[in-house]
Amino acid sequence: MNTPASTLAASVDYTIQLIEKGAQDGATCTPDLVQAPWNFDGGAPSYGPGASMGDVIPVNTPRQGQLPQVYRDASPAELHARIMRAKQMLGDKLVILGHFYQRDEVIQYADYVGDSFQLANAAKARQDAEAIVFCGVHFMAETADLLSREDQAVILPNLAAGCSMADMANIDQVEECWEQLMELYGKEVDEDGRAQVIPVTYMNSSAALKGFCGRNGGIVCTSSNAETVLEWAFERGKRVLFFPDQHLGRNTAKAMGVPLSRMPMWNPNRPLGGNTADEVLDAQVLLWHGFCSVHKRFTVAQIEQARADYPDVRVIVHPECPMPVVDAADEYGSTDYITKAIAAAPAGSTFAIGTEINLVQRLAAEYPQHTIFCLDSVVCPCSTMYRIHPGYMAWVLDGLLDGQVINQITVSDDVAVPARVALERMLAAKPPVAGGGGAVDGAGAGAGAGAAADVTNRG
Ligand code: SF4
């Protein structure tokens, strides 16, 4: 099933074109959005146009070479014909995965649409597929490689599609942090047999960090199961080191009753993360100094404006948003939670959504019985995801037709084995029993915690 024409006509790319031409009111975060991504690949110091363009790409992040001229010159119709031809000829040997935040011009070709973990699992379910083309960002393709068979090739159409948040914590920084923590805490378990600290990494991190967690008694979490995972960690450790997203860590731990005073931030560029030894010793959750540039854009003022414009509005934001925004919203939850809440609402509902614009625009087109808008009125997509363009897709698919695997993402065994351990711990972690005592006292979960995840099969 392809994206309906009405959805494509309401896509973010199309909206940007209209605003640029003056045919529609509105603002974009940068005029660079109208340019093709290859104008930014191969050496640009930032991630390109969109919400994370201000973030600097670390030097060791993969760079994309120049896309062959034929694909840069091709019209949208020519690229469409190439992609459809390859899909037809490759048949079941090919599976295309599209992340919720991907542009509609790419999503229309996806066999499955979902969040990063849903998509990695979808890849696993397609036993016949020899090539998995992941239209997301680098860490997502790595996760798909971790979960897929050895003889399946995972392909990222543009190697420069990284994730600015994932790039805010690298393995050297985390190893260095761990060394300092071990020096301060020691390695002995406490009187209850708990470790001094348990590392927890968000799915939005490199495979190297997932491997670090696997090697050090830690675990992975998603935005759907962060509370369940923190509960798991507190059963096994006195404290948690949570990376790379400070906001998901803070919002989740706060909802579980951890006081803010016991959640110091760890800045990897300062000794002891910029804290005193006493602050680190007293910590219950150490929050890494990382964030998502897309979700950082949402503000309490935007929520107040939405409420003034639509008194009945239901405000739902993603837990990667800053804490004051999450506190001011009616609900918070993962992309899966947001999608299900909209699907279940009575016709005529109004939603102000705090997450990436491509998903919000697509939901607005798919549920015309509701009024759905993005809290941020400025059109500003995830710049890293935006680097996947139909031109790159056509290029890697033509490569497959020629027997060439272009841009394969492979995680080496020394990283993959412990990373799978951390992922398996996550899958085995059970949601907390209502009323049951964990290591953290108090308050209930956020609205999105523990939500089960479904992927959309568009085949
Ligand atoms: S939306 Fe944020 S966390 Fe997600 S891929 Fe983009 S930069 Fe990374």
Describe this structure in words.
- With 459 residues, this protein is of the alpha/beta class.
- It has 3 domains: 5-164 and 384-411, NadA-like (Rossmann fold); 168-292 and 414-445, Rossmann fold (3-Layer(aba) Sandwich), CATH 3.40.50; 295-379, Rossmann fold (3-Layer(aba) Sandwich).
- Helix content is 38%, strand content 12%.
- It is built from 18 helices and 16 strands.
- It has a 5-stranded mixed beta sheet, sandwiched between helices.
- The termini are close together.
- The model is unreliable at 435-453 (pLDDT under 50).
- Residues 52, 101, 137, 163-165, 204, 292-294, 356, 382, 384-385 line the site of iron/sulfur cluster.
Largest sheet: 5 strands, mixed
Structural class: alpha/beta
Give the uncertain stretches in residue-range form.
Answer: 435-453
Number of structural units classed as domains: 3
Shape descriptor reads globular
Mean pLDDT over the full residue set: 92
